Structures
1.
Amino acid sequence: AGPANVSATGADYGAAPTTNAQQGRRLTSAVGVPLRNTDHSLTAGPRGPILLQDQHFREKISHFDHERIPERVVHARGAAAHGVFEANGAAEKITRAAFLKKGVQTDTFVRFSTVLGSRGSADTARDTRGFATKFYTTDGNYDLVGNNIPVFFIQDAIKFPDIIHAGKPHPDREIPQAQSAHDTFWDFVSLHTEGQHHTIWNMSDRGIPRSLRTMEGFGIHTFRLVNDAGETTLVKFHWKPKLGVHSTTWEEAQIAGGTDPDFHRRDLADAIEAGAYPQWDFGVQTFPDTEDQMFEGIDLLDPTKMVPEELAPVQIIGTMTLNRNPINYFAETEQVMFNPANLVPGIDVTYDPLLQGRLFSYQDTQLTRLGGPNFQQIPINRPHAPVNDMLRDGFHQAGVHGGVAAYHPNSLDGNNPLPTPPEEGSYIEVPQRFEAVTDRKKAATFDDHFSQAGLFYRSLTPVEQEHVISAYTFELSKCWDETIRKRQLQALANIDATLCSEVATGLGLDAPSPTEPVEDTATSPALSQVGGEWPVD
Ligand code: HEM
């Protein structure tokens, strides 16, 4: 596939990031006045003080002083690329999403990231990777804001500040903990054992990918698709890299990070520049939208659980090709915003308590990070679909809105008197019935924190298991508080006895006995295989 310069709708926002860039051959001031000299300030005599009247000096220095915006509170370090997604039509029966109809091509922008490091941290740290995709569909922007690990650390968004505070650098010395090697992280996940499943994926080779091009991506939450007939299906989204899944060893990651902290972003940009466009198949696991939203005993609303692919195979519904590097890191990669609440007709949310909290958090943080309420107008964020939103004014307003009536419908301006029935083509939330008593309590189906972690461990090959043992042993050896190390060993005992005893031996501690029943190895299905047919009908 060649570069997608123009979208299916003919719009070129995002594809034309040079909008408002520099023009002409003369150096000018910000208001276009030609300048004679930008190397010497205006001084009182050749050795005197700078004059306040030097507008060029003040403009140049002051603009520089304000060049930085806050980095993202999480996922600060990232690399991105433009691409195109083509649907194969396999999802048409279960969703009315226009961009999933057969043969439709949609522009995309993908930002990969590490979660915990700052903007200047190394690419190669052991960490979860973000995999955020913006689809510029004809029905507006759809953001799938996922990770390279299929489950999350916590079950409820209200704990997100806590897990992030535990994972970010210590507040006294600001020493980065990109390898999670410190007391607060292990304190948190050994106290909040729902984090154990995600953590074992981090401690596996999945935590140190070889390349951004060789990572899977997961939407993690269960989403609800709705078709033209109003029928609903629950789904989990998957990205499968055509290049396969590859990781580094810990030693390789250390060397690569030491010699080239930009290892991953360089690899991505170089590959695209060379025409070796990375591709991912996009797929869904589907589940009947039953009242209890359970599947084979797994609570689909618990984001710390996955559904093994033997139980629900991934059916491919399209393919994405990344084929164009950003021209300007700040304008595109830094200013892009993703929001799980950006949904298009045909895709709805579920009541996963983690997803529910995310629906608030992203827009809220972007109001600060991107300087006010008009960040959707930044070229990289603009939809490739008409916008007629009645939102007005605010900091950094770039639109010059005509007409007198900023409300809908109105009988004064031409394009707002509802030419089509309001329901037609609109986003409609799937109606849901509730009968519930408010409480701060999770269902008992959220209680099992260990069995899928054990299942994952036992699905690995012996050499992969060896890597997991080494990773825990190394990381826990950096945890100075023995109470925390012992508490984490207790969690490992509940995951897998051999894993626990190997790590305990490495740490010079006794292996505790499990406090929870550990699943029978022989009957555990592997979690990482693909296969089978899709039972959509
Ligand atoms: C940023 C994924 C949970 C708050 C991000 C990004 C990704 C991501 C990929 C980076 C987006 C980019 O490249 O710009 C996920 C996943 C989650 C999850 C997969 C769980 C399944 C949460 C929760 C919260 C949260 C529970 C808060 C309650 C944020 C915030 C940002 C962010 C504030 C920064 C956004 C920005 O500055 O634009 N997340 N996240 N995330 N996430 Fe999450």
2.
Amino acid sequence: MEKFDVLVIGGGPGGTPAALALAAGRRRVLLVEQGAGLGGTCLFEGCIPSKILHESARRLQAIQHAGEFGLRIPVGDIRVDWPTILARKAAILQHRSQSALEHARQLPTLRVQFGRAALTGPRSARITPRSGDPFEVEFANAIIATGSQPNRLAVPGVDLPRVITSEQVFDLERLPENLVVIGGGPVGVEMAQIFAAFGTRVTLLEAGRRILAPVDEEIALALQARIVQQGVSVHTDIRVNEICHTGDGAFVKFHDHTGAPHEIYGEYILEVTGRHAMVDGLGLEHTSVRFDPHGIRANAMLETDEPGLYAVGDVIGQPMFAHWATAQALALARRLLGHPTRFPTPAVNTAVIFSIPEVGIAGLTEAEARAAGHDVEIARYDFRADARAQVAGHADGLLKLVYDRATHLLLGVHMLADGAASTMGEAALALSAGVTVEALASSIHPHPTLSESFGLAARSVLSRASHGEPGNSAAPGSTAVSAPETTA
Ligand code: FAD
């Protein structure tokens, strides 16, 4: 029976970087991926396909608003060429998956096997290749990086052909005229806005009282208003009861918070109600690994209850982001290679929701910071008077810095702005370096850029402190600025 130092199960943003890093450190690694290529949910059904659609949607909107920028374009002639968008997507996915495989092939101690892995004991597994005979392997350590799969509602009709999940939405044969999106989380919001931008009539149904439950409330509500302005019909605080088939689509039957019944037609019903760990058929019953509805139980060092078995990424539950899975994987690989390791903590994680405008999140929300025992203050920045936002024609949005009142240590960054995604790298660095608002204020941010807002919000804290004043915002415990102090 062949023996490996490390068996990695799952070739997504968790498993692949772990396998590459361990093999670069000369460990004998077997990476098993049940799909046809490396990249996981992120590449084939998640981050990348959704951002390819988002890019097309943003470019379409830019053309539609070109007149505001003094560009005369015959808007009536613009059409969404769905097959070309899908062909572009396929080419990008193929290229990225191939690059990952080529990288893997350069590492002599790494074997990539396309097929399914199932544990047969704490140190052994059975591999069923996509073609060929099954075989058994032994290993010293294993990393479970099998990701997650879409949740399904427990209501009649979810299995109808016109009810789809994120696994099918990126391969629809044609652009639907009507779409009902069930679920107002990050994926539901992104999909609702993208399809609405393409001209689809979109209804967004959310069981909670507002969209994006874990996001700062002020930011989520401001975005919800924007989604409604965009023409999406948003219903919150509802309960879906049933989905019924009709000739060319389906009806979603739901109750609103008063108990009143409603019925909405969609050519497709996109159910995006969260995800759960992928542990089916993994053979965990042959080990001491424990899991619950949140995923495999793993401690801060990513150890499961079975010594030598580790788990990273979506399979251990929230937060479910590609960069988070990769950060965990790289930290774990360092540890297994015997290097000193700092494991990532949610307090320094970042996230972006590619809504329109984008939501950027880094570190703790106000509520999370308070729950962690901090005496919290907030500095705010309003993009209405921001130079870059005005130039770009998207002069609305909000930045909130969450910081500790006594130490001025930055605890969180929350932003709603067109382009917020690209600024979160700075927020990530600031949080992981443990900077204060003073340090943020004293770093020189180029003008006119969105990142300038970080410095301006931080400077508002300092001017408030130097004047011994409680700040200029309406909200207690917060400071606010709305325009650059020194720049044009
Ligand atoms: P996965 O990427 O799911 O990889 C797990 C792999 O394991 C899969 O390839 C699977 O085939 C394989 N596998 C499972 N079981 C077995 C087995 N028994 N044997 C062999 N192989 C197995 N995150 C972001 O950071 N940014 C975004 O913009 C973003 N957008 C998203 C949009 C959508 C629509 C969705 C659905 C998700 C999005 N995500 C995004 C989340 C991101 O895709 C996941 O957090 C990320 O893919 C998790 O990585 P992972 O390696 O843990 O799991």
